[in-house]
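Both lines are quoted verbatim for reference:

——
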Amino acid sequence: MKDKYDLIIEFFDILSDRTRFDIVELLRDDKQRTPAEIIKELKKSQSTISQQLKKLVQSNIIEVHQEGVKKYYKISDPQIYILLTQISDFIHKVLKPTLDIEDYKTLTRVNPEDIL
């Protein structure tokens, strides 16, 4: 039986994949998107996006519903963005002094000039 620490590790493992993380970030501002929209925005192959959407659905981070022949994906619980913001703030506060500007920009997706 998994304990809470196993679940936390699984959660971070799911988001440790760049494509999955990018999908979650892409869904931040939109209520829902089709796979075709995600493929176009992220410039990844259909098979890559499909595999990663499946893993995100299985982990309950995103959910899918169908309208006619189209599938739509959205975040299951918007609280995930509170957590991601807290992690970004932590990186800014604690890790920023040890990173160069390009590393920091990559990790936080924030323009370093906006915070310096």
Notes: Residues 79-114 form one domain. The beta strands are 62-67, 70-75. DSSP finds six helices and two strands in the chain. The chain has two domains: 4-75, 79-114.
